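Quick question, first post here. What does this chain look like in 3D?
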Amino acid sequence: MENIVLVTGATSGIGLACARIFATNGHNLIITGRRKDRLDKISQQLKQDFAVNVLPLNFDVRDREAVKNALTNLPDGWANIDILVNNAGLAVGMDTIQDGDTNDWEQMIDTNIKGLLYVTRAVLPGMTKRRKGHIINIGSIAGKEVYPFGNVYCATKHAVDALTKAIRIDSVKYGIKVTQIAPGAVETEFSVVRFKGDKNKADSVYKGFEPLHPENIAEVVFFATTLPANANINDLVIMPTAQASATIFNRE
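> Answer (accepted):
Ran it through. Tokens below.
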């Protein structure tokens, strides 16, 4: 049976890989992102490659009214979202607290915490009404450990960890599944954004070992949605084989 799957931040990295794996398996998609040109191009490509229906929604998850307007006024046939993948998120900057850029802090807090909340608030009532649905939050090893220069980013991902547990508690009586997938090092645009476009610094993060790839995370996300109704993956940490913790790597 075809599901409707909503993936936020679907224009690159883990979000795009999730959209592709659900499309590969015949599910219809709502994909969101800030970059309209890329969003529209991906939408057309998914339709062409996998013969599924795709609804692209261009908004920033930080914009509460835009989220509400887009997700509470969906076209006919799109309102009953079965699976929500809260993927939109980012890290910006690598400063100590005392040297931190408060604009970076606001961007991370507004995207990683408030954006996740706005989207969940728009989608979860429909799931509880139907007593059916699965929410998957993309967390991070940064939500399990705090590492040097990670301060506010780590705090936001600790919030995702806590919110995942809270959403599960609040919705368990409705039969809603809630899962957190918490990756270690994944080679995406993540580090380029964190280092504000400095590709040399971004590339150095992944030197000497094979990081995870977005498709690795997407496969785990998809697997979590294939379990029988009586089984749920609450929390899953996935790391590169060469990574033992947030800061310990086997670099050749």
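The chain is about 45% helix and 15% strand.
The first strand starts at residue 4 and ends at 7.
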